[in-house]
Amino acid sequence: MLSLLLRHPIRSTIAISLLIVALAVGFAFLSFEFFRPPDPGLSYDIISALVIASLLAPTFLYPWVRTAVKLRDTTVEIGKLVARDTLTGLPNLFALRARLAEAIGSRGSSGKFAVLFIDLDRFKLVNDTLGHSRGDAVLVAVAERLRSLVRASEFVARFGGDEFVVLQCGIGSADEASALAGRIVSELSRTYRIDGHEIVGSASIGIAVAPTDGVDADLLLASADLALYRAKAMGRGIWRFFEAGMGAAAQARRDTELDLRNAVSGKEFAIHFQPIVELATGRITVCEALLRWRHSSGRLVSPSEFVPIAEEIGVIDEIGGWVLRESCAACATWPGECRVAVNVSSVQFNLSNIPALVADALARTGLPAQRLEIEITESLLMQDIPATRTALLQLRDMGVRVALDDFGTGYSGLNYLHAFPLNKVKIDRSFLAGLPQDERSLTLLRGVARLSAALGLTVTVEGVETDAQLAVIIAEDCIHEAQGHLFSRPLPEPQLRQLLAEGATAVAARRDRAAKHARTRLHVA
Question: CB of 204 within 8 A of CB of 232?
């Protein structure tokens, strides 16, 4: 009755008024037929009052009914708000849990469904470089793409932040979940065009399958989250299924994150320096600063292990600033004009005002700008953000040299060599694979080196470990510098200072032996 009243307020008010009239007529009939009141006038007065009440009923009843209807509509809207994400319009975590409970309850004895936990890779960088409004626009675009991918039987929700969940019901095998994950990764990796900016995105996905990985909503979400953790740790832009033992790996990762935060304040970091040798003279012209983390347990943690974590949890800016200042301070005390090269990750470059950071470090330490090299990677140039180009130009105008590190890895593009203000290209050690026997490797090395030198860039080859490799490099007069364990491993600053004090004798002797080897090789050829 109440639900009918709320659905049709006007009709309901009229119906109530007619009911009152009917009651009045009925009362009159009962009065005269059964009770025979001694005073008929009294009955007429009662009937008249009831008729008047029925006529006035709409006036009194309708405002009450209308208020009840508004209350119902407000309740419905609140219910929608509780179950919907206000930014994307997708169901939210509250609705997701309800849908998961429904899927678990209706699964039956053999039905399977999958929970796909989706996280946008490096989304924080979008917010930090382009602003939160454009970051929100990306989230809305992601939601639209996910809607277009799921079927009617599937359910997509925003979990929170840059995380989404897809519930894939009625699957026959895990292969169906893998196929959907592949489509999602492919779709979310397409370029986003937001306010004139082209944003290259990617996503990682963790997958849990019921009932194999659990039949409890919290357990399934936790399992999918652990699988997501593994996917991101393995390189991003991929998907992984939950496996037993992932909990221990995730806990180890969380411990590393906590230890890394403590290491920043606990001064557990140190800087070692690896010499770079000028081939023409045998002099050490540059020393690359390499970060080392001596864990409180005594274990030496590899940069390849902790730098990606530092980037992800947001401490790379603090660590990178410390490395820059300490490296400049050390170089300011070295003899001669030996320079220092400092690596700046693409994440740090986009998070920090690198020109201002460099200017501050130079001012504090008194190091001339021309004695500092900033090494960047191709991943930074791939983004081609106008701010990146502007920052590189500012560094060049300050007199700081800019080197493109690890050239030849990832998405190498020769256009980077002339499109950006670079002073040096460092050819990756992978180009030395197979030398000196592999002629194809030599052709690739020679081609890149000659092109770079023709563009006016200093050419450095990394990863030189044998006299035979050095002999091949020396034979190419377009290669200016070499770096590798053949000359020296990365050294603590006191040992490096001793090496610099000894001069070029040791490295020159090694260079001369390699040059003799090269001449012999050419003569035999």
Answer: yes
Range of the domain at 43: 2-83
What count of other Cβ atoms lies within 10 Å of the Cβ of residue 386? 8
The phi and psi torsions of 473 (rounded to 5 degrees) equal: -65, -45
Radius of gyration of the chain from Cα atoms? 37
Total count of domains within the chain: 3
Contacts of 509 (CB under 8 A, 6+ apart): 282
Task: Say what the pTM is.
Answer: 0.64
Q: How far apart are CA 30 and CA 84, in angstroms?
A: 57
Helix (H) or strand (E) holding 102: helix 93-105
378-430 per-position pLDDT tens digit: 878 766 567 788 899 999 999 999 999 988 765 556 677 777 889 999 998 88
**155 and 281 share a domain?**
no
CA distance 301 to 269: 10
Beta-ladder partners of 300: 294
N-terminal to C-terminal alpha carbon distance within the chain = 102
- Residue whose entry in the numeric block shows the structure tokens 């530092």: 310
The DSSP string of 287-329 is EEEEEEEE-TTSPEEPHHHHHHHHHHHT-HHHHHHHHHHHHHH
Binned at pLDDT 50, 70 and 90, residue 506 comes out as low
Say whether 276 sits in a helix, a strand or coil: strand
| DSSP label of 238 | -
pLDDT at 471 over 80: yes
As a whole number, the mean pLDDT across the chain is 81
- Residue 258 resides in a domain: no
